[in-house]
């Protein structure tokens, strides 16, 4: 944008252009932008006001009263609002910036950046709460923004000034339940903090961002940095300070120090935290920022059996998907080609073992490959929860893998339901962890999808399938395993619903799945049905009265005895051979645990 563009915009704002010459407008806006470094939109507003003082207010016409809003309800730019918020963080404006205050405010529903260019407004202080009235929502890039890009602008203009009044503490924490999928080594265990008064920042490489390397090496503390991923919303980073870390792990700071002193290694402390936290659900009260969530209070879900309510919810979901499928709104895993968050998609082993196709939505080398799920979802990461049944090394001892069988294996619609997750010495710690698992053991595996397609050296047959490049293998209890499974069934039903409801052209991934795997997912519907019946409490299961999986596409030949093949028929003219050899410990790593060995 040039001065001339700004002048165009100012002229378009003015109702009577004759009062002022183009040169004057350009001189005025150039002075503000170039000499005084006022941001262009402010400069445009200022010059417009100079020549149209009565009619113009920036953005929208201000209404008589602000509406008191929760931050979570603010979704539009150019809206005049009033908010009651806590200042979570105060940031330093960049040198030479016209910004005079910037930081982060939050309430119980969300957080938002605030900014002002005025010198005259009161300074907001971190940790204090304010009632802010007559502020306007703003975005930097009008053409391309989402809700997260909306800022709250505190204004001080000729005809409107934001009022800022300090009030009693505003509750800015939000309570939510999420699963912890990984504990980060950097930021967890024994950490060092700056010992300068009132600083307390975590030291990075031994130094404080503001105070440099402390003489005493800093103060030890106990903390956790963990990532949660519910498979639907954006993965969250959770920061636990000492109290929350002790609460979450049942391990005291003193015990963590003891572990450190006997092993001289923070790795051992982190490993202990992982054992206690990864794979578990936590209910946290936390205040949020774009950098993560600061946990005030935490309850770890110890796991319990599936309740009657859980079972009835699943049954209801199943019935509604079959009766009247509609494309679920906002169902991230099934929509279009846009960029998406890399959640770990919940998938049953019975479905994942059918995967033998991947795709990328971009030519960029760094773009992820997505495994194409037969129900029409995409996954660059998945999560499977079940029982670790076998651990084995490959022939030349370079790779160790784990077979996981989940509850979908109880379905008569599949021979078995098993996935494989393995690694080599490039992740020696994880490889050792896999080797140490004493099967059988309940585990939750989170990892990248790995779709392979190669020729068998011995008989020249084509070997296709998918396994998991594990990031985290968490040992869990039955309660957690059951909770994961209930969640996985709901997510799978959502994909099935989209698959059943979508017409060609509606959902790119469903089209891809139908083209590759075929239209018939009745086997997977039967798997879901049987798994719901299996997981329901014994006295509830008979009453659920779940209808059978429908015969989805009469054109697809099927013996329809309720024990159809694990792979869809009719795709690419290949015969599926579900009764492939049982995996054995000495196979090629990529074949280990694979169910699908298609020959063409
Ligand atoms: Zn410091």
Q: State the CATH topology of the largest domain.
A: OB fold (Dihydrolipoamide Acetyltransferase, E2P)
Bound ligands: zinc ion
Number of strands: 22
- Straight-line distance between termini: 59 Å
- What is the correct CATH architecture of the largest domain? Beta Barrel
Structural class of the secondary structure composition?
alpha+beta
Number of helices: 13
Q: What is the gyration radius calculated from CA atoms?
A: 29 Å
The biggest sheet amounts to: 6 strands, mixed
Going by CATH, the homologous superfamily of the largest domain would be Nucleic acid-binding proteins
Estimated share of beta-strand residues: 25-35%
Number of domains: 4
| Unreliably modeled segments | 332-340, 554-600
């Amino acid at each position: 944008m040039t001065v001339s563009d700004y002048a165009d915009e100012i002229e378009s704002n003015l109702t009577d252009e004759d009062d002022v010459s183009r040169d004057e407008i350009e001189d005025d806006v150039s002075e503000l932008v170039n000499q005084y470094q006022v941001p262009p939109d402010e400069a445009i507003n200022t010059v417009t006001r100079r020549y149209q003082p009565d009619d113009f207010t920036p953005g929208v016409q201000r209404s008589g009263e602000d509406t008191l809003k929760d931050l979570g309800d603010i979704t539009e730019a150019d809206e005049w609002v009033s908010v009651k918020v806590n200042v979570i963080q105060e940031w330093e404006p960049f040198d030479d910036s016209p910004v005079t205050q910037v930081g982060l405010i939050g309430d119980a529903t969300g957080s938002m950046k605030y900014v002002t260019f005025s010198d005259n407004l009161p300074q907001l202080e971190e940790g204090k709460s304010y009632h802010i009235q007559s502020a306007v929502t703003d975005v930097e890039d009008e053409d391309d923004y989402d809700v997260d890009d909306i800022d709250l602008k505190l204004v001080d203009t000729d005809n409107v000034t934001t009022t800022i009044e300090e009030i009693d503490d505003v509750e800015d924490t939000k309570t939510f339940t999420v699963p912890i999928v990984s504990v980060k080594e950097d930021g967890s265990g024994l950490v060092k903090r700056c010992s300068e008064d009132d600083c307390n920042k975590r030291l990075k490489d031994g130094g404080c961002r503001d105070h440099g390397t402390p003489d005493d090496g800093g103060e030890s503390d106990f903390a956790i940095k963990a990532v949660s991923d519910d498979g639907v919303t954006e993965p969250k980073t959770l920061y636990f300070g000492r109290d929350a870390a002790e609460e979450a792990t049942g391990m005291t700071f003193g015990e963590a120090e003891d572990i450190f002193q006997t092993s001289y290694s923070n790795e051992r402390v982190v490993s202990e935290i992982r054992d206690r936290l990864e794979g578990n659900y936590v209910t946290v009260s936390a205040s949020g920022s774009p950098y993560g969530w600061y946990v005030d209070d935490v309850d770890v879900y110890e796991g319990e059996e599936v309740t009657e309510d859980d079972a009835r919810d699943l049954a209801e979901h199943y019935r509604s998907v079959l009766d009247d499928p509609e494309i679920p709104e906002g169902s991230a895993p099934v929509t279009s080609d846009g960029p998406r968050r890399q959640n770990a998609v919940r998938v049953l082993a019975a479905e994942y073992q059918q995967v033998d196709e991947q795709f990328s939505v971009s030519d960029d080398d760094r773009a992820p490959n997505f495994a194409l799920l037969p129900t029409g979802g995409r996954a660059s990461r998945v999560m499977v929860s079940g029982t670790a049944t076998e651990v084995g090394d490959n022939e030349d001892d370079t790779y160790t893998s784990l077979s996981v069988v989940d509850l979908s294996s109880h379905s008569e619609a599949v021979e078995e339901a098993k996935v494989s997750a393995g690694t080599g010495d490039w992740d020696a710690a994880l490889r050792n962890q896999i080797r140490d698992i004493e099967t059988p053991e309940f585990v939750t595996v989170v990892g990248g999808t790995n779709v392979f397609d190669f020729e068998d050296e011995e008989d020249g047959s084509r070997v296709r399938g998918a396994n998991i490049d594990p990031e985290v293998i968490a040992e869990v209890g039955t309660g957690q395993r059951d909770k994961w499974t209930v969640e996985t069934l709901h997510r799978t039903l959502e994909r099935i619903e989209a698959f059943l409801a979508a017409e060609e052209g509606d959902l790119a991934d469903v089209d891809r799945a139908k083209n590759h795997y075929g239209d018939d997912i009745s086997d997977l519907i039967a798997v879901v049905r049987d798994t719901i019946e299996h997981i329901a409490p014994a006295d509830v299961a008979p009453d659920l009265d779940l209808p059978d999986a429908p015969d989805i596409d009469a054109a697809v030949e099927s013996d329809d005895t309720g024990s159809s093949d694990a792979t869809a028929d009719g795709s690419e003219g290949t015969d599926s051979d579900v009764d492939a050899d049982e995996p054995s410990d000495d196979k090629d790593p990529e074949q280990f645990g694979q169910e699908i060995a298609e020959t063409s």
